[in-house]
Hints:
The structure is a single chain. This protein is mainly beta. The protein has helices at residues 16-22, 27-35, and strands at 6-14, 39-45, 48-54, 60-64, 70-73, 79-88, 91-98, 101-110, 113-120, 123-131. Strands 4-3-2-1-10-9-8-7-6-5 form a 10-stranded antiparallel β-sheet.
Amino acid sequence: MANFIxxxxxxxxxxxxxxxxxIGVGFATRVIATKLKPSTTISQVGDEFHIKTSSTFKNTEIxxxxxxxxxxxxxxGRSCTSVITLETDNKLKHTQTANGAxxxxxxxxxxxxxxxxxxxxxxxxxxxxxxxx
Length: 133
């Protein structure tokens, strides 16, 4: 997990609006969200990891231990039960469960880039972040 620690800024995004529409995010929120360039900071305190996402519209932070379920409120206001696992040294899997349905995303590190791949029914969104420290 040490490969993930640091601050990242969004540099590109593909099919983010389509992803948000597929998971039920309203039009007005989608218009705002697609224009944002958030930063994501990943840190560790003991066994607990923190992923903080910041933008001019909204800030979110999740705190978790690998492999343990936790309650999460997403940036679009959904409440879910989540679990994050380390698939490889460079790949995290984040599963969100709400109303009996799972949404899965992956964060993968390659050099100084982090790719966030978001999966929804019939849509795959990729967001590329560049490490800034």
